[in-house]
Design goal:
heterodimer, A: about 325 residues, alpha/beta, Rossmann fold, 2 domains, six-stranded parallel beta sheet, 12 helices, elongated, B: mainly alpha, ABC transporter involved in vitamin B12 uptake, BtuC, about 70% helix
Chain lengths: ~325, ~350
């Protein structure tokens, strides 16, 4: 029995020794993300972790697996661990507020990446794309394509999780563009995605059954294209421009899949967030605040982005992060 | 006491998990001094109280030989209900598609928006909702003789779906400051969450060890047929166990919702492993008839300490889950070892 107890103590010490890293004097930043379910988040994660490592920053990563309470606990633990700064991709705008409040109370500078807090009263460095304008620009182009055809369109909007302010802005941008030409469109069919691939597939399939006339689709995120393709392809509607069954397609993010589909002429336009600009600017601002001893920096930075269309693809294709990554492969 | 008998004494002690937690903590302290700083200790405590409330409830059901998988969905429904009652402002763009919009939700918030009694009445209704769901679970198990696993699994699916349906999957914000204080506020180092769960623990302890009802819980869990022959109203006892579990789940939901400052339809989705894990580590038997409030506390203490230390070690989410799962397995194994040793001791 004595040996058994010693074995348990030995194992516990081993776990601690193996997992604990030696104390060092480098700057320590906690990077907490809600999950890495889309290509955009994966690419952002890569850009942030690699850049911080290159700059000699010790990085503590935390994955909340889409649980807001877990993310809050992770951030509180990181603060107790004495991190110098925090970068967060929050689960949603509301939980971002709570997390910023914890960091503010502890006097640890915090930066929010790409998903803004529900209200801006608390102190954080926030970088976010101008989703409404980017979406509007992409859909504007799609509308011009629709106007060239002598027919009425039934538009479909694949809506994101409306708890995420980005999703709300993308939805607004879509409607801003559509409402400029009410003569061209029937009533919009909305498909809730909740930023979930399985939900999107089920809902989009149901929408196409109820409205087989849908011929104009905008997805609030490019990562949902495979689900849209899974529904349109068997119907013979996943075809390039010029084909009479072509559905006018657009999205927002600017990932590799969208780039590839743009090049094949299947996607007409995509709103592009400048991922590398966002990641680098956020890190610069946070590191600057830490160096200046700012405990509660407050700054709101907007990524104006752009719309990549079939007309400017050759000229601006390489400005889209998805095309850059595709080119690296 | 002879020194060579010490390990056996320790492992058979009902405080074994406490000793284990303290040993683990001191080993960690050697390598990670910041684990003992005031802020981190406060984190461990604040993470413990809502989980402790849930484990106390689960313990009652485990004692009567059942299991309550629906605690997480009770948390979600209760959290949403609290939001629907107490919110003071809602965005029509987000909630217009909710089936409750126009009925009990509007741009001005929920039903009790702005009322002086909003928080106390809201809390009472939330707790009553937990009791009611627990009552239906217990009724199905006791009267319809349905397997607890099946009943509570179905409840889990139904109420999780209901919470999402009612809010069109949106979080309900703008809750009263007094409600939010329940999850964050307190007097100096004593938080409201601690006080609430302390009262709950004392009530649970009193029921289990100072009342006839408490003895009935154990009797039903050890052997339901014998307990019925002995005159124990087994059905009522079973229903009460599930009701208490629902009540505790509602309490946990209140504390989690308050600390997250919102009613969340997805609240608690990932917390089931923590509840069952802490209960098993604490020494509760999945076969019934065994469990104490103090064991639940030890289990929660060890589990929270483990989660906190794994976070500090900068491990990935998946590694953390693997370690947690392994620890639960070891705890279950240790329980078997302890039971065998105890049986041998009695035989000798």
């Amino acid at each position: 029995m004595k040996n058994f107890l010693l074995l348990i103590l030995g194992l516990m010490s081993f776990v601690v020794l193996c997992c604990n890293r030696s104390v060092d004097e480098r700057l320590t930043i906690c990077f907490a993300f809600q999950d890495l379910e889309t290509e955009f988040w994966v690419a952002a994660h890569k850009a942030i972790t690699e850049t911080l490592s290159d700059r000699g920053v010790r990085l503590i990563e935390r994955n909340a697996s889409e649980d807001a309470n877990r993310q809050l606990e992770q951030i509180k633990d990181a603060i107790a661990q004495g991190v110098d700064g925090i970068i967060v991709i929050p689960q949603d705008g509301q939980s971002a507020n709570t997390i910023i409040g914890e960091a503010n109370a502890a006097g640890v500078p915090i930066a929010i990446f790409n998903r803004p807090p529900a209200d801006s009263s608390r102190h954080a460095i926030v970088i976010v794309a101008d989703n409404e304008i980017i979406a509007e620009q992409a859909v504007d182009y799609m509308v011009t394509q629709a106007a060239r055809k002598n027919q009425k369109f039934t538009p479909c909007l694949v809506v994101g999780d409306l708890g995420d302010p980005n999703a709300v802005e993308r939805k607004n941008g879509f409607y801003n563009a559509i409402n400029k030409r009410p003569d061209l469109f029937n009533e919009v069919v909305q498909v809730p995605s909740k930023w979930n691939a399985a939900t999107t597939l089920a809902n989009f399939e149901a929408a196409l059954q109820a409205h087989p006339e849908i011929n104009f689709v905008f997805t609030s995120s490019d990562f949902l294209y495979p689900q849209i393709r899974a529904v349109l392809e068997p119907l013979g509607k996943w075809v390039a421009r010029g084909n009479e069954n072509h559905v006018i397609l657009g999205g927002l993010d600017g990932d590799q899949y969208a780039c590839s589909m743009m090049r094949q002429g299947i996607v007409d336009a995509t709103g592009v967030q400048d991922l590398f600009f966002e990641a680098n600017t956020l890190m610069d601002e946070l590191l600057k605040a830490i160096q200046n001893g700012e405990k509660r920096p407050k700054k709101w930075i907007t990524d104006s982005g752009f719309a990549l269309t079939q007309d400017n693809l050759a000229e601006r294709g390489q400005d889209m992060w998805g095309c850059t990554l595709l080119g690296e492969k | 006491m002879e020194l060579r008998h010490l390990p056996k004494k320790v492992i058979l002690s009902q405080h074994f998990v406490l000793y284990l937690s303290l040993t683990y903590f001191f080993i960690l302290w050697l390598f990670m001094p910041y684990i003992a700083n005031l802020r981190n200790l406060s984190n461990i405590a604040s993470n413990m109280w809502p989980l402790f409330a849930l484990v106390i409830g689960q313990m009652f059901v485990l004692i009567v030989g059942g299991i309550d998988l629906s605690q997480t969905s009770i948390m979600a429904v209760v959290s949403v209900l609290g939001g629907v009652l107490m919110s003071s402002q809602l965005d029509p763009a987000l909630f217009a598609k909710s089936p409750l919009w126009g009925l009990c939700l509007s741009a001005n918030g929920g039903v009790l928006s702005g009322a002086k009694i909003a928080v106390p009445l809201g809390l009472m209704i939330m707790l009553f909702c937990g009791l009611l769901i627990g009552f239906f679970n217990g009724l199905c198990v006791a009267k319809l003789k349905m397997p607890p696993f099946m009943v509570t699994l179905i409840s889990m699916m139904f109420y999780s779906g209901l919470a999402i349906f009612l809010t069109a999957s949106e979080n309900i914000t703008h809750l009263p400051a007094t409600f939010i204080a329940l999850g964050k506020g307190g007097f100096a180092f004593v938080t409201y969450a601690f006080l609430i769960v302390l009262i709950l623990a004392l009530v649970a302890h009193t029921i289990l060890h100072r009342t006839v009802l408490g003895h009935w819980f154990y009797a039903v869990g050890m052997n339901i047929k014998t307990s019925i022959i002995s005159g124990v109203p087994a059905n009522r006892v079973l229903i009460l166990a599930y009701m208490f579990s629902g009540f505790c789940a509602a309490t946990g939901s209140i504390l989690y919702s308050a600390r997250l400052e919102g009613g969340r339809p997805t609240l608690g989705q990932d917390v089931l492993l923590d509840i069952i894990g802490a209960a098993v580590i604490g020494g509760m038997s999945l076969f019934g008839g065994k469990g104490k409030v103090i064991w639940a506390f030890y289990g929660v203490l060890f589990f929270t300490l483990l989660a906190n230390s794994l976070n500090m070690m900068n491990l990935s989410f998946f590694t953390i889950n693997i370690v947690k799962g392994s620890v639960i397995l070891i705890a279950a194994f240790l329980d078997v070892v302890r039971t065998r040793i105890a049986a041998k001791e009695r035989g000798a």
